[in-house]
Hints:
The structure holds two protein chains of two kinds.
Chain A: H1 3-30, H2 39-58, H3 62-79, H4 87-108, H5 116-133, H6 137-142, H7 147-156, E1 165-170, H8 182-189, E2 193-201, E3 219-226, H9 230-236, E4 245-250, H10 252-264, H11 272-279, H12 284-301, H13 305-308, H14 312-318, H15 324-345, H16 352-379, H17 382-405, E5 407-409, H18 411-428, E6 432-437, E7 442-444, H19 445-466, H20 470-475, E8 482-491, E9 494-501, H21 508-517, H22 529-534, H23 557-566, E10 570-576, E11 580-588, E12 593-601, E13 604-609, E14 613-618, E15 628-631, E16 634-640, H24 641-644, E17 656-662, E18 665-671, E19 673-681, E20 695-700, E21 706-710, H25 712-723, H26 728-734
Parallel strand pairs in A: 6-8, 13-21, 16-18
Antiparallel strand pairs in A: 1-3, 1-4, 2-3, 5-7, 8-9, 9-11, 10-11, 12-13, 12-19, 14-17, 15-16, 17-18, 20-21
Helix pairs in contact in A: 1-2, 1-4, 2-3, 3-4, 3-5, 3-7, 4-5, 10-11, 10-15, 16-17, 18-19, 19-23
Chain B: E1 4-8, H1 12-24, E2 28-32, H2 35-41, E3 49-53, H3 61-70, E4 79-84, H4 88-97, E5 101-105, H5 109-119
Amino acid sequence: MSFDEEMREALQTFIIESLELLQDMEECLLSLEDGDDPTERVNAIFRAAHTIKGSSGLFGLDHIVSFTHVVESVLDALRDGKLGISPELVAALLPCCDHIALLIRNVVDGQLDADPAISAAGRELIDELQQFLQPGSVAEKAVTVSEKQDILEASGGGTMDSGNWHLSLRFGPDSLRDGMDPLSFIRYLSTLGSIAQLTTIAENMPIADQMDPETCYLGFEINFKSGAGKEEIEGVFEFVRETSTIRILPMDSEIDEFISLIKELPEDESFLGQLLVKSGALTKRELEDALNLQGEGDTEDGGQAAKSKQPIGEILVEQQVVQQPIVSAALDKQKQIKDNKARENQSIRVDAERLDILIDLIGELVISSAGVNLRALETRETGLLETTGEMMRLVEEVRDSALQLRMVPIGTTFSRFQRVVRDVSKELGKDIELIISGGDTEVDKSVVEKIGDPLMHLVRNSMDHGIETADLRRQRSKPARGSLRLNAYHASGSIVIEVSDDGGGLNRDRILEKAVERGLVQHNAVMSDQDVYALIFEPGFSTAQQVSNLSGRGVGMDVVKRNVTALRGRIEVESQIGMGTTMRIHLPLTLAIIDGFMVGVGKSTFVIPLDQILECVALPEDTGDREYVDLRGEVLPLIRLRPLFEIDCEPPRRENIVVVEYAGNKAGFIVDQLLGEFQTVIKPLSKLFAHIKGVAGSTILGSGKVALILDVPSLLEYVGSKNALVPPSLSQHSAQ
Amino acid sequence: MAKTILIVDDSASVRQVVKIALTGAGYDVIEGVDGKDALSKLTGQKVHLIISDVNMPNMDGITFVKEVKQLAAYKFTPVIMLTTESQEGKKQEGQAAGAKAWVVKPFQPAQMLAAVSKLILP
């Protein structure tokens, strides 16, 4: 069956269906004043009109659509209780039923377009209805032009809220001749949002005998409610832009919104126009037009153009494409950016690569000076020892200041989240405030580059799962506005970055339940809060009861942990149910050089990162083959480096324990000798060795020998897996 | 009833894609393989919109549009010109001839539908 045949058949169905609906409508209308609860009947009448309108639209029966639409609007008002049932209303609606029936019968007779005589009758009916709908000014204007405008006027209804955009449209006189029907554009506009109010401007309409029916005299003032951006709305009028005047302005109530958006823009754009475009208050096209105008002004003024050039902001306001307050806000922002730029100019930009080379060289210098120091120690020559000591101190200073070169304040990374928080909270329908502190804290540039993604995830996670909806917050007697904090500070040789929220906190029981379900822990495992919270970083773990667009697919938190671990950092979780959660990321100050502690096992040398070492104690001689010792009443699991790294030689008479701590877990490494503190330049292991666990990298000693840097976290994990064999009480103990 | 759109393009595949998109959206589509052929299809019936390519054998799109604008029955019919990125000049030429709307080739069916529905309703 061809499409046409299909359509014809569908039209038959429509006709039968509509006539039936009209019959029902009439019956219901007649019984409306009977006294019984009329709600159901009003709904039925509304549905009938709505269906007829909807399906006649499908068949291009515009005259039926437009007439039915007004009827539907009245019924809608009746249904919402904005109109009361009155004999007058019923009297006005009944002829409308008849009229629709007439229109449909005409369709049966093959008349698919409006018949002028019938339309005139329809308009009279509509006029009557309009009085019920909006006894006021708009109704008067509504009848001025043609049937088509009736629809648009009526869609205002005066009942919806005011919208967020104001569109001022003046169609060019040739619009109709060019085949550009204003109605089509306005209809298309309503696919982007809803037209809250529409006023037809027909001031330019001349008296009847002077009117050229081919010329378009119409203008429209539209209050439009839409989530679409200015650019998108502008796109609707793409084809008439050149011949018509199209102004799209945010409503006054939205101006503040744009101003705050402008304030939150990143500080990398110093042109006023660009700022406005970025905030969405101005479209690229409007900017281009304004710049062209500015350029035209230039050529007219000739020589003194540069001086007399009209500021772009003024042009934009004059052209009525942006409101003055928004321009002012952008100007303030521009000034702020310029000030910051001026400050920046006092510094020198250096290629990051050159800096890396310098730091690399200084690393080598640290190594070789350690070598010099070693030789000097062997000579036992006081003068030489003194000078090498002095040199070591200077090298250390050079190292520190070289590393300082790479340091940047973390504030810029943080301020990026203003926008993220704003957008995401809008998306989630939550009101969330971002509080930033410690933005001046300086972090290694490479850390800043890599911490963005994990932070983004933590922030989104907190907003999505942490902070409750406003309703729930009110129930819990918290302020409706949730707050999210980003904080950074230095603590004992590392950087701490905190993401905290004042949301619901982690639900220990739910996490455990889920972990058991996923087989991550045993059914009756006894675990500390820390251990339970750490489970959220396990791959594939997600307790979100509803998976949302942003997070909750369980792919995030384990990646966060992996990224942070790759930076030699760790994450701590602190949470209190009902009070909120704090995610604390500890990161090393720099990635290139660490302070290490050197230990010897047999002929091998190992380096343990100093910030992970708690203390060194002698191994009690009665330990034997036990896997743990009693450290001042605490159970300390032991890791014997000799068998672990398969070092084949007899242990010395006295061995030592290096007590390390990572993420709240302690363990003791059993080593032969304690060789002391050592500044270590980390050399990453080649790919060949990348799979080896327990080794984080290597370094070259002053003697030229290679020492392996131990990867404390992975070694502790190794202990953890071994401890799974010992009774749970013990493993729980060790986790304290 | 459904509104009629005339698509003029010498490429059968372009016509086919446009036709599928438009009929799917509820328009009737008639086709013309070039300007001359398309003019012969305009025999007084109601055509609500014309979509025309620029470069075509026998009669190019610009001439075609100019001819259409001479026909009393079609002089107010909106015309969408199919231009390519590099034909900024052609776009203006088309506009001068009376094709005030345009879609840049290559286009997605959805883009075509958006442009069409700005101008006429199904």
